[in-house]
Amino acid sequence: MRTEERRDLTLATAGVEIRADGGAPAFTGHAAVFNSRTAIGNPLSWGFYEEIAAGAFSKTLAEGDARMLVDHDTRMVVARVSAGSLRLSQDEMGLAVDADLYTELSYVNDLVVNLRNKNITGMSFGFRVVKDEWQPLPVETVDGNTVEAELRIIREVQLYEVSAVTFPAYEDTDAGLRSVGVALAARGSDDAFDRRAKYRPELNDFRREPGPAPTRGDDATQPGETTGGRQAMRMEALAARYLLAR
Question: Where are the domains of the chain?
């Protein structure tokens, strides 16, 4: 079971711009927004609400070597941190992206044209949660009743890549089901699965095989580290895919 998660923003929310400073074009925008509550799936039944806490990218930006891709395709690398062509930082809004666009690459030239013509409509980022926190969240429904939903606050992530995407995923579709399933698998709570599987039995496909639950808090797995068993093999394979190990 892959532990990579993805979250999307529309270009309007991401604030994407293509600029030309007298030379090659460059890309600026945001791949993630802090403290913005998002519905993942249907929070009143099988999903949850989610926020990314300010500073969630601090450790991974200091240690990682993320790429910018097109549609999460590793064959379409636009820029890379270690190459100096991708600059990632945190500001008051969220995860800021600043990338050089080398249009000698045909797909980068296509990206520039598609962004200007609004054919590409979103930003996304691929990540693994290192630390998160789940809280009960009372929600008042339109009929005046109160339903207890859950809020997931993401405190720290390991960032693999940011992408310009043609089709931002709508979280009430199958992409939402996968997002919920992967998050619940990382949480490791059978009760959390059981409550949601009553509405979407397909979530049971994401349950982990028996084993110790992931650690949360100060002892959580850090970026680049893995836990034992099959999960270690999976994370090593994912790290190899993005050439995280040196």
Answer: 5-241
